[in-house]
Design brief:
about 65% helix; about 450 residues; single chain; 3-stranded antiparallel β-sheet; 8-stranded antiparallel β-sheet; Glucose Permease (Domain IIA); alpha+beta; 2 domains
């Protein structure tokens, strides 16, 4: 017993020494990776601050762009009004030019009329001149025709001629005066009409000049606002691209963090599995030593029985069995509702949930006594461990041992399956003493 305790203590020390090295390595690895994660997180925070600054600048640029678009719309509206004013002024100018042509025609007509009146005035003047000459001649040749005695009829006739000549001259003079008035009025009206039209044309041309200057100013303003809009749009596009680049960088950093965390988790899992493997190996070594001692005790007891030495015989303890698989126990020992038949039946072992094809290990050293199909159990292995103790492994998908073969504790003997009365891949495991089923949970290690 003291020897057993020494071996147990030695195995425990070996296990602790084996676990300490991976633990220290794990701590160093995790610390290094955690530092990398913290650096990535700080970089992400810096990128977030840059992104926030860009977002604020973009919002300001967008608001400024809205104001610019409003200004451009106002300038466009004013420019349209100016264009309409120019079109109206040009239409008026066309009408004035047409009126000017008409006025010029009227001036030509008036001038022609004045020429005709001039001819008429010349004719009147000649007629008056002839009459004056005749009167003059009469006065020259008959200076005393009104005083001379003579034929009274002659004197009366001369008086009639003088009176008639005066009346005709007055008519001619009146005609001459009217002709002068008509000529002067026609020319004055035509010239006034032409002067009015020229003034209107000058006014319109001046207005067109002012409108052209206003249009040029509006177009320059429009170009300025358009340039500003283009600059703002380019700025917004550039800032959006910068934000997208930052977001891409952040996504890359977050992905790096996830990869590092996955690496940490894989390393932890690897170390856990390594520690688990070392624990299982240590447990296997301990159980192997216990099994060896149990066999020695059994051999010693058998020798004592043969020698007839029945005093102080020690009854050997039952074996401690190694857990054959790592899966979770999904059905325990005792009465239960059968998953297929739906009736209450006694369950003689434990069911471990595992994946199809996972390895099954021997729970203790012994001799394989069965590798065959059994009703309900499907493919089954039975191992005899001596002293009346046996273990059973059911629903297997394959065998790694054969009947009569000696196996060591922890050796792979088969594969997880779902043969026989089974609803899915799992291992049905039993522990029996002299054929009587016992609760495996009381004898399993780990």
């Amino acid at each position: 017993m003291r020897r057993f305790n020494r071996i147990l203590v030695l195995l425990t020390v070996i296990a602790l020494l084996g676990f300490s090295a991976p633990s220290a390595a794990q701590d160093s690895f995790v610390e290094e990776r955690q530092q990398q994660i913290e650096e990535k997180k700080r970089e992400i925070e810096e990128r977030r601050r840059e992104q926030l600054t860009l977002q604020r600048a973009s919002l300001f640029a967008i608001k400024e762009l809205d104001v610019t678009n409003t200004q451009i719309e106002e300038v466009d509206l004013h420019l349209k009004q100016v264009n309409s004013w120019i079109a109206a002024a040009e239409a008026r100018l066309g009408a004035v030019e047409l009126s000017r042509t008409t006025a010029q025609e009227r001036v030509v007509d008036a001038q022609e009329r004045a020429a005709e009146v001039g001819l008429e005035i010349t004719a009147i003047r000649e007629q008056l001149q002839d009459q004056v000459v005749q009167i003059y001649l009469d006065f020259v040749y008959e200076p005393n025709f009104l005083l001379e005695d003579g034929d009274p009829n002659r004197n009366a006739r001369r008086q009639f001629y003088i009176e008639e000549l005066g009346a005709d001259a007055q008519v001619l003079i009146d005609r001459l005066r009217r002709a002068f008035d008509d000529q002067e009025a026609s020319v004055r009206q035509a010239e006034q009409a032409q002067a009015d039209i020229e003034q209107a044309q000058a006014d319109i041309e001046e207005a067109l000049t002012e409108l052209a200057e206003l249009k040029e100013a509006q177009e320059l303003l429009q170009e300025e606002w358009n340039r500003k809009r283009e600059l703002l749009q380019a700025r917004i596009t550039l800032e959006a691209q910068e934000q997208a680049d930052i977001e891409s960088e952040i996504s890359g950093l977050e992905q790096n963090i996830e990869e590092i965390e996955d690496e940490i988790e894989r390393e932890r899992e690897r170390i856990r599995l390594e520690e688990e493997r070392q624990r299982r190996e240590a447990e296997l070594a301990r159980l192997a030593e216990l099994e060896r001692q149990r066999k020695e005790d059994l051999a010693r007891l058998a020798e004592q029985e043969r020698a007839g030495q029945f005093d102080n015989i020690e009854i050997p303890a039952p074996p401690t069995f190694f857990r054959p698989v790592t899966g979770e126990v999904v059905s325990g020992f005792g009465n239960r509702v059968h998953p297929i038949f739906g009736t209450v039946r006694f369950h003689a072992g434990l069911d471990f949930a595992n994946n199809m094809g996972d390895p099954i290990l021997a729970a203790a050293s012994g001799t394989v006594t069965q590798t065959r199909w059994r009703e309900g159990y499907g493919n089954t292995i039975v191992i005899d461990h001596g002293g009346g103790w046996t273990t059973l492994y059911a629903h297997l998908s394959g065998y790694n041992v054969s009947t009569g073969e000696e196996v060591d504790i922890g050796e792979q003997i088969g594969l997880i399956g779902s043969t026989g009365w089974s609803t899915g891949p799992h291992l049905h495991f039993e522990v029996r003493y002299r054929g009587s089923p016992r609760d495996p949970a009381k004898y399993l290690s780990l």
